[in-house]
Write a structure and sequence with these properties.
Order of helices and strands: HHHHHHHHHHEEH
Subcellular location: Cell membrane
Helix content: 55-70%
Membrane topology: Multi-pass membrane protein
Distance between the termini: 40 Å
Number of strands: 2
Radius of gyration: 21 Å
Largest sheet: 2 strands, antiparallel
Structural class: mainly alpha
Strand content: under 5%
Function: Converts cobyric acid to cobinamide by the addition of aminopropanol on the F carboxylic group.
Shape: globular
Pathway: Cofactor biosynthesis; adenosylcobalamin biosynthesis
Number of helices: 11
Keywords: Cell membrane, Cobalamin biosynthesis, Membrane, Transmembrane, Transmembrane helix
């Protein structure tokens, strides 16, 4: 079976597995990678970019190597083995079901008026300071996190899986995890995490644009999504979160961005869809989760179609020899 079909069947099975099973409570492969990356950091850390670059290469390169070894091990096996490996890798690196589950849990607490429970759960979803947020601000934070993580935790992985198979799936998730661990601009990681942050920007670029396009197509307000993306995405400090959050804001008809707090520091970001959007309400969390799921399946279809098209156009044509009649 050709590699394009292996990816199509395997990625679909992996997403279905995530939809049914979600993330395991213990022994998650991404958590194991995080522990390994932390151990590498303890050995390499230094307040300079060269050590940070080495950290990124060791960790992301190691994840890609594991994927390449796994793919090589099943190369001569029946197609079912290759599909199973792709499905397992896809399930391991995507997190759409857990994303929706956490968002809904916070939304349920907010709907019940239990602000303290919502504050306790918010760190499971994003790095905001929950004590600095009221109910409406937490709802906005949840919608923003659902939008951004749809790209980071699902679509970006599918894109690189389509490009490079199992090594691409694992490497993208490794890069994204490294950015979350060391890519922020704290005194400890400003230099050391620079390489991880820049590599995450590069790796996440195609997935973020595909997410934004899918949000335009799947959202209830297509024109609003396009308008917000064009007008406001560039004002976001992240080159990838900007298009995603702006398109979600326009598609849902809400305002995102503005003032937020991370670990004791306050940031004042541009408002996305400020002219046409309304403040986020608790009910918008469920709408964002539904949009995220629709975006996921549209992105899978686009990745599978692109992989099949590239495979078809680059396939060596068979030559036939016709004998002459005598």
């Amino acid at each position: 079976m050709r590699a394009d079909r292996v990816f199509a069947y395997g990625a679909t099975a992996g997403l279905i597995g995530d939809r049914i099973l979600g993330d395991p409570r213990r022994g998650h492969p991404v958590a194991a990678f995080g522990r390994a990356a932390a151990a590498v950091e303890r050995s390499l850390w230094g307040d300079d970019r060269a050590r940070g670059l080495l950290h990124t290469l060791v960790c992301a390169g190691g994840a890609a190597a594991v994927g390449a070894l796994g793919a090589r091990a099943v190369r001569s096996r029946p197609a079912a083995a290759r599909i199973a490996l792709t499905a397992a890798a896809t399930w391991a690196v995507v997190g759409g079901t857990s994303l929706g589950r956490e968002a809904r849990a916070i939304g349920g607490a907010l709907a019940a008026g239990d602000i303290e429970v919502a504050r306790e759960r918010l760190p499971h979803l994003c790095g905001r300071d929950p004590q600095a947020l009221d109910g409406q601000q937490m709802a906005r934070a949840v919608v923003e996190s659902v939008a951004e993580n749809t790209s980071d935790a699902v679509v970006g992985a599918l894109v690189w899986g389509a490009v490079a198979g199992v090594p691409g799936l694992l490497a993208f998730r490794a890069v994204n995890t490294l950015d979350a661990m060391v890519g922020h601009k704290s005194p400890r990681y400003l230099r050391y995490g620079w390489a991880s942050a820049r590599l995450d920007d590069l790796a996440g670029w195609p997935g973020a644009r595909l997410t934004a396009v899918a949000a335009v197509l799947a959202g209830p307000d297509r024109r609003g999504a396009v308008r917000a993306w064009r007008a406001d995405a560039a004002a976001h400090p992240s080159p990838n979160a900007g298009p995603v959050e702006a398109s979600f804001a326009g598609a849902l008809g809400v305002r995102l961005g503005g003032t937020l707090a991370y670990g004791g520091r306050v940031e004042h970001r541009a408002v996305l869809n400020g002219g046409a959007g309304r403040p986020v309400e608790v009910a918008d969390i469920e709408r964002a989760v539904r949009l995220s799921r629709q975006v996921t399946w549209l992105a899978l279809g686009a990745c599978v179609a692109a992989r099949l098209l590239v495979s078809r156009t680059t396939r060596t044509p068979r030559t036939t020899r016709r004998g002459r009649r005598g």
